[in-house]
Amino acid sequence: MAEHLSQSELDYPFKLLEYFNGFRVSKVIFSACELGVFDLLLKSQEPLSAQHVARELGTSVDGMERLLDALVGIEILEVETTDGTAFYSSTDVANLYLAKGSAKSLHDMIIYQSQTIYPLWNNMVDAVRFVGSNGKQLNRESEVFMEEMLKFMGLMNSSWVLDGHDIVTAFNLSCFQTIVDLGGCTGALAREMVKAYPSSSVTVFDLPQVVESTQKHFSQENDAIVFQTGDFFSGDIPAADLYVLARIIHDWPEEKCLTLLKKIYNTCRPGGGVLLVEAMLFENRRGPVMAQIFSLNMLVQAEGRERPPSEYTHMLKKTGFQNVQVCRTGKSYDAILAIR
């Protein structure tokens, strides 16, 4: 990219200015979601004026008009003018991904990005200077912790509604009769697993407070998956043919990852395996950009990092697994399958 941009950017830094303002574009979308703009437009049978939207959502007309115009500018909304008045409507993309009511809604992901990740990135300079200075620890019994946990659960639920099918079909997993999703959160990925492999039984194994919150806020009627409580670090894990670790390994330093993988290897039935789901870096670490950004996010929020395939392969083989296969999906997350 540097060679391609060198001359044009010397003349005028268009791309740099676009990057500088990227956080503002994000906040335009975040704010519209939090205010309920996309939900209102989806429910409406016709385009709405800024005055109408402002009245319904309890905002100033001037502020709402500027927000709506910015959304038109980034092609999230459409606008038409009649008798001098602008009327706004959602694009198909906004209706599908940004409104709460859609089956593929990313609303919960956006709320987590806006209210949790966005403020945390103010700490990036200190996080780079002092690895491990990733913010204060929250009391797990506190209201703040529970609120943050619910937001995170919403994020993961949105992630697997969007990417789950590509992950569970990256390999043919039909030979695994019993599947346990360790740290499976709301069960969104497990439900995609059941859809793809209806003859397999799928269990979500997570902390008691996570399972309780899932049953309260994310439960589904006639659910085909089973929830079991426990702690995969400090306690036993149920026997299975296949264990799924989706966005778990990237949370932790290598030593802790090896401990968990060894426990899985020792519990896993012969011929069974483990499926890792992560945003993998290229071997030279020069991309993908999303994985690089995710790795920075681990710096400000957790103890881990994103890794290239060779590092995951090394950890799997060191703990006894063989026949490691890697599948890049071309989407946000990739899959690695290893056999015991």
TrEMBL record:
<dbReference type="GO" id="GO:0032259">
    <property type="term" value="P:methylation"/>
</dbReference>
<keyword id="KW-0949">S-adenosyl-L-methionine</keyword>
<dbReference type="InterPro" id="IPR029063">
    <property type="entry name" value="SAM-dependent_MTases_sf"/>
</dbReference>
<dbReference type="InterPro" id="IPR012967">
    <property type="entry name" value="COMT_dimerisation"/>
</dbReference>
<dbReference type="InterPro" id="IPR016461">
    <property type="entry name" value="COMT-like"/>
</dbReference>
<keyword id="KW-0471">Melatonin biosynthesis</keyword>
<feature type="active site" description="Proton acceptor">
    <location>
        <position position="250"/>
    </location>
</feature>
<keyword id="KW-0808">Transferase</keyword>
<dbReference type="Pfam" id="PF08100">
    <property type="entry name" value="Dimerisation"/>
</dbReference>
<dbReference type="GO" id="GO:0046983">
    <property type="term" value="F:protein dimerization activity"/>
</dbReference>
<dbReference type="GO" id="GO:0030187">
    <property type="term" value="P:melatonin biosynthetic process"/>
</dbReference>
<protein>
    <recommendedName>
        <fullName>Acetylserotonin O-methyltransferase</fullName>
        <ecNumber>2.1.1.4</ecNumber>
    </recommendedName>
</protein>
<comment type="pathway">
    <text>Aromatic compound metabolism; melatonin biosynthesis; melatonin from serotonin: step 1/2.</text>
</comment>
<dbReference type="InterPro" id="IPR001077">
    <property type="entry name" value="COMT_C"/>
</dbReference>
<dbReference type="GO" id="GO:0017096">
    <property type="term" value="F:acetylserotonin O-methyltransferase activity"/>
</dbReference>
<feature type="domain" description="O-methyltransferase C-terminal">
    <location>
        <begin position="146"/>
        <end position="322"/>
    </location>
</feature>
<dbReference type="Pfam" id="PF00891">
    <property type="entry name" value="Methyltransf_2"/>
</dbReference>
<comment type="function">
    <text>Catalyzes the transfer of a methyl group onto N-acetylserotonin, producing melatonin (N-acetyl-5-methoxytryptamine).</text>
</comment>
<dbReference type="InterPro" id="IPR036390">
    <property type="entry name" value="WH_DNA-bd_sf"/>
</dbReference>
<dbReference type="InterPro" id="IPR036388">
    <property type="entry name" value="WH-like_DNA-bd_sf"/>
</dbReference>
<feature type="domain" description="O-methyltransferase dimerisation">
    <location>
        <begin position="17"/>
        <end position="99"/>
    </location>
</feature>
<keyword id="KW-0489">Methyltransferase</keyword>
<comment type="subunit">
    <text>Homodimer.</text>
</comment>
